[in-house]
Each structure stands twice: as C-alpha cells, then as structure tokens.
Amino acid sequence: MPTESSRKPRSDALHNHHRILGTARTSFAAGGLDVSMTEIARRAGVGIATLYRHFPAKSDLVIEVFTDQITECVAAIDRALADPDPWHGFRTVIEQLCELQAVDRGLTTVLLASVPDITVFEQERVRVENALAELARRAKAVGRLRPDFVRDDLTLVMMANSGITADSGEDALAASRRLAAYLVQAFQAVPERHPLPPAPRLGPHPALRGPHWR
Q1: Are residues 110 and 183 in the same domain?
Q2: The whole model's pTM is what?
Q3: pLDDT for the residue numbered 213
Q4: What is the domain range of residue 44?
Q5: Predicted local distance difference test score (pLDDT) of residue 182
Q6: Under 8 Å between Cβ of 178 and 200
Q7: Which residues bind DNA (predicted)?
Q8: How far apart are CA 38 and CA 163, in angstroms?
Q9: Number of independent structural domains in the chain
C-alpha cells in the first residue's frame, strides 16, 4: 500500500502542474507569447527547475495551454462557414477575432501566425486561413464585401486591434468591439451605417504621449 509520504510528492507535483498552467494562461493572455519561462516560474511561485520538469520546452507549455482553445476557435470558424448568410459569417468572424485578441493576445498569435517550434497547430492555422479566404470570397460573391478587400486587410485589422491599450480588460474589450464595428462598416461594398457599440474610457495611447503629458 502506498504510504502518506509516497502520495504527497505526486499531489504536490499535480498542484504545481496546475499552478504553472494557470499562471501561463494568464500571462500569455495579457502579454502574448513573449513572456519568458523564468517570469512564469516567478509568478507561479515555483523554481525554474520545477517548471522545466513539467514542461521541458516552452513549446510544450504553449501547446498544453492552448489546445482546447484552438479547438473551440476552429469550431467557431466552421460555424461561420455553415452560416447561410455569407456576409454575416464573415462579419461575425472579424468581430470574434478582435474580441479574442483583446482578451488573449497569446491565443491569436498561435491561431493566426506561424510560431517557431510549435507545429502541432499548423494544420488548424492553415484551416483557419483557408476558411477566412473562403468567407471573404463568398461575401464578395453576394455583393456585400467590397471587391478590393484582400487577405492582408485582415492582418491590418489584427495589427490595429493589437494596439489597443486600456486600464482594464473590460475597457480593452469595449474598445475592440467598437473598432471592429468601424472596420466592418468600412469593408462593406455598400456601406450601411449602424450604431456603434459604446465607447470605453481610454487614456492617451503611450505612442501619443509627449512631454505635455508628463
């Protein structure tokens, strides 16, 4: 029979594993994938050696953090493809991607970019890229998406959305929704004006702060 002392290390190891995962999810969501393993270990309150025992490489940690979320994202893309209204499907994906980026910067990087040493999600990433291209093609075919829309315009959307800074996650999400609404209207072949989501309270962006802000 296992003794109390033989059970305790396994219990501690499981606790540390979950603690590291939780910390990594929060850290990657707020700061993207650039957060270092050393910083994650510090925030989780474990030694760097403990972290590497559970996750020998950063890619191992990223994969375990994002596997379930990637599956959910691909399912959302598939629902958009199944939407009988091509414009609604395209617009919904733009809005969802912007919201996703606002709340989890790491996930959008894994979903939309080719990340070195992380090839396990490559099939899903290519699937998402192809689905976005197909959604755009369908929306153009029914005359709802402007004909000069190109794939790089989606990159512009993500770049603009990634520049949002706010004092709270709630304000960042509200700003992202408003930006997405602006852009969706700009992408229409025949622009339709709809009320925008409420504007959040945002301070000056760091790039706009000169000496007069100090």
Answers
A1: yes
A2: 0.78
A3: 41
A4: 11-56
A5: 93
A6: yes
A7: 36-55
A8: 26
A9: 2
Q: Do 188 and 102 share a domain, yes or no?
A: yes
Q: In 83-141, where does DSSP find H-type helix? A: 86-103, 105-112, 122-141
If you search the block for the tokens 């755009």, which residue do you land on?
A: 136
So what's the pLDDT on residue 206?
Answer: 57
**pLDDT score of 9:** 53
Helix (H, G, I), strand (E, B) or coil at 188: strand
Same domain assignment for residues 52 and 70: no
CATH of the domain at 23: 1.10.10.60
Alpha carbon distance 171, 191 (integer Å): 27
Q: Is residue 44 part of a domain?
A: yes
State residue 30 phi and psi, 5-degree precision.
-80, -40
pLDDT of residue 164: 85
Identify the CA nearest to 192 among candidates 203, 200, 184.
184
**Contact indicator for 139, 94 with CB cutoff of 8 Å:** no
pLDDT of amino acid 4: 46
* 124 and 167 co-located in one domain: yes
Give the per-residue pLDDT at 118: 80
Q: Alpha-carbon distance 82 to 84, whole Å?
A: 6
Q: Could you tell me if 143 and 177 lie in one domain?
A: yes
Q: Which residues of the chain fall short of a pLDDT of 50? A: 4-6, 212-214
Cα distance between residue 167 and residue 138, in whole Å: 38
- Is 205 among the domain residues? no
